[in-house]
């Protein structure tokens, strides 16, 4: 299979690496997309993959980068959690379909021993370690609390134990990681799931192509 | 620290336009203005800076966050640098030109400055060119705007244009009729802006079902208009807006059946002061908007103000969509070429670059100076190797 690089009618679907990818994979098959063999090989160094659809190729990037690629029109379609969409709030991204995968929640957590004496109503300022500084700032500002965010890219749970700060805002699915690190979820910010996202200008200029793909993914999601 | 800074560094979002792009932009603006003029639009030129309270009055308040302010040392009043020209032209139409016969057709081109760029347009200064058609509520006026925008862009060589039509007031009207409060309306708007049907269902209350159906009634006009027509919209206003949209699409398609028209009844972002049929211009393969336009009411403080419509084109995106500058016909005149030969070439449209001294290899010198041609024996010949 060959890549139809940079042809005017090429379509690019951006997928997030890691945890979500294994959940998206069955949807691809149901939507009629068969990527080339290298796509399923975790050792492959390829970043862009051809598919059985002549003008459609896949790219595999970090979850935050999926939104960036789609917002700037470098990819036409993508799969991104609404945590990423809330963080960036790109006006150029439409999220027409909830794929109902990658479900988890975004929450505020703090050490167990702090919870008892803590009255959130008295806060005027909090210091929070998070991968989501924008969401965190907005969430606390809405109730009149100024959030000072320490941006981390992973292992948030370490921050309170090592004294970097006392609270974190992070994705929680089972809560096991929090528990193992002596943390308790104290506030729920949002329910998260993965969305099919499309670039606004691509949807406007190629409505038939793009709505066709949205419908195929809708059917795949319903079939799953 | 007093580290020497490069004098070449410009503030974020500002840049120098160099040859051949500067001349190209100017030429493109002139071609747009010529198209507008041929349709009877007379050019006006509002100032770069106005008093803040007139620049930001009425619908101008939508541009308040994007406006640079400065203090006028003479009048001691705050002034604002324009971030958009449309409202200035509307101001001219309803003040100094209030006694001129309607419909009034005006055009403009100029630079605007904004406090912050957006993700897709990091430029803080860019050129706008557009028209305003003031004093007509007819569907023919809405149609004229769409067709003129298409003609002007086609004239610049922009291909595969796609025009997205909307009525930005539709969702607002539905929220009002459904009795949603301001907070819920805002939440519904945010969900609809992402075309996220699940979120709309979650926050939309009584209006949710209809807004979801509106979202589904978008796409190519031929497919989406019947869906939109089949919806049971509450209230006279919403029904009137819908039939106006259908009417304009029908008229545009009748004149230019090749034009790709899409409709999107929930689009409203950046249409804050529009009151009727509005549109956004896209081109295949270009990620930004080429321009936008729509119906509004000139004379913001007057409910009987002139019904108006217009559109504005963003030159930075338009230039991205249009073919680049044609190679200039530049010819190098080696030393000793007769003055008359230069005069003749320039009258034929050549750009002549005269040698200031003798050179060994005129063709090489021509290439060094960016000339595609060199004059040999009175004839321009290619300077390519």
Description of the molecule:
Chain A is of the alpha/beta class. Chain A has two domains: about 120 residues, Periplasmic binding protein-like II (D-Maltodextrin-Binding Protein, domain 2, 3-Layer(aba) Sandwich); about 90 residues, D-Maltodextrin-Binding Protein, domain 2. Chain A has nine helices and eleven strands. A six-stranded mixed beta sheet of chain A has the order 2-3-1-4-11-5, sandwiched between helices. In chain A, strands 8-7-9-6-10 form a five-stranded mixed beta sheet. In chain A, helix 1 packs across helix 9. The two termini of chain A are about 30 Å apart. With about 375 residues, chain B is α+β, with helices and mostly antiparallel strands. Chain B folds into two domains: about 300 residues, BirA Bifunctional Protein, domain 2; about 55 residues. In chain B, about 35% of the residues lie in helices and about 20% in strands. Chain B contains 13 helices and 16 strands. Chain B has a nine-stranded mixed beta sheet, sandwiched between helices. Chain B is elongated and about 85 Å long. The model of chain B has no long low-confidence stretch (mean pLDDT about 90). Chains A and B meet through strand 5, helix 8 and helix 9 of A and strand 8 and strand 10 of B.
- Unreliable stretches of chain B: none
Most strands sheet of chain A: 6 strands, mixed
What is the CA-atom radius of gyration of chain B, in angstroms?
25 Å
CATH fold type of the largest domain in chain B: BirA Bifunctional Protein, domain 2
| Class per helix and strand makeup of chain A | alpha/beta
The order of strands across the largest sheet of chain A is 2-3-1-4-11-5
CATH superfamily membership of the largest domain in chain B, which one? Bira Bifunctional Protein, Domain 2
| Quaternary structure of the protein | heterodimer
- Strand residue percentage of chain A: 25-35%
- CATH topology of the largest domain in chain A, by name, is D-Maltodextrin-Binding Protein, domain 2
CATH top level assignment of the largest domain in chain B? Alpha Beta
Span from first to last CA of chain A? 28 Å
**What does the largest sheet of chain B look like?**
9 strands, mixed
Order of helices and strands of chain A: EHEEHEHEEHEHEHEHEEHH
| Shape designation of chain A | elongated
- CATH arch. level architecture of the largest domain in chain A: 3-Layer(aba) Sandwich
Poorly predicted runs of 5 or more residues of chain A: 1-6
Total count of helical runs of at least 4 residues of chain A: 9
Counted up, domains of chain A total: 2
